[in-house]
Amino acid sequence: MKKTNWMFVQRFTIIFSVVLFFGSTNLAVAEENSTAIRSVGAQSCKDVVAILTEKVDDRVVAALYVQWLSGFVSAYNIDNKIFDAFPIRAPGDELLRFFVALCAVNTDINFVNVVVAGLKAIEPFHAVRPDDLISVEEEGTKYEFYRQYIKASQLYLKGKGQRVVADGSFGALTKAEIRKYKNKNNLPGPPVPDFTFLLSMIENKK
User: Fold this and answer.
1) What single string gives the DSSP state of each residue in 39-104?
2) N or C: which end of the chain has fewer CB within 10 A?
3) Residue 68 and residue 74: Cα distance in Å, rounded?
4) Backbone region of residue 139 per phi and psi (left: phi > 0; alpha: psi in -120 to 50; beta: other values)
5) Residue 2 in 3-state DSSP?
6) Helix axis angle, 93-104 to 195-203, nearest 10°
7) What are phi and psi of 71, to 5 degrees?
8) For 19, which DSSP code?
């Protein structure tokens, strides 16, 4: 999979923060859009990126993608007998941001294929069993991460020579080391293991 376009991620994150409605995924989608939900995966990543950046203020369009992704990940969990393949539970838009960022550098591939490849790429960070959620609030946004993911992130940082304890807790030291890592790698966002951090880990896992 190609390297992340961080300039796109930065721009996409800023655009979405203007209409951050994904934190609540209870948005109702009209019944006539059910066919559109089923066809999301067949779209090229080029079309997905264009739609979600050009129609960012269209809540119904964006909700179609959120619903499709949520359903696909749920089916993936069942097929692979794991608790949750995506390690970030909140805010809800992290799921969409992660896969759209992958799409941005794989524009010639269908969305569903990028989603499958992305889920396989983050396999070391799957919540393979039921787990506690660690809640963190930064810059007015509430994040929820599985404890397994926090520990895996800490182990990753330790492997990069950073001073962190891999205990699955999110304290001041872990926050400081994530901030240090993000600054060093020019990653946008607060000092938490959000979707940008996850993208960076799968690109730099060696």
Assistant:
1) HGGGSBHHHHHHHHHHTTT-HHHHHHHHHHHHHHHHHHHHHTT-SBSS-EEESTHHHHHHHHHHHH
2) C
3) 10
4) left
5) coil
6) 40
7) -65, -40
8) T
Provide, for the chain, the percentages of residues in helix, strand and coil under a 3-state DSSP scheme, each rounded to the nearest 5: 55, 10, 35
- How far is 34 from 12, CA to CA, in rounded Å? 26
Spatial separation of the C-alpha atoms in residues 103 and 47, rounded to whole Å: 9
Q: What angle do CA 152, 182, 204 make, to 5 degrees?
A: 55
* CA pair distance 135, 8, nearest whole angstrom: 28
Share of the chain above pLDDT 90, in %: 63
DSSP H or E stretch at residue 14: helix 6-18
> Edge-to-edge strand order for the sheet containing 141-146?
88-90, 141-146, 133-138
Higher pLDDT, 141 or 40: 141
**Would you say 96 and 158 are in contact if contact means Cβ atoms under 8 Å apart?**
no
Q: Are 52 and 58 in contact (CB under 8 A)?
A: no
Distance of CA 185 to the CA centre of its chain: 18
Structure tokens at 77: 């969990």
**What is the reported pTM?**
0.82
The pLDDT of residue 30 is above 50: no
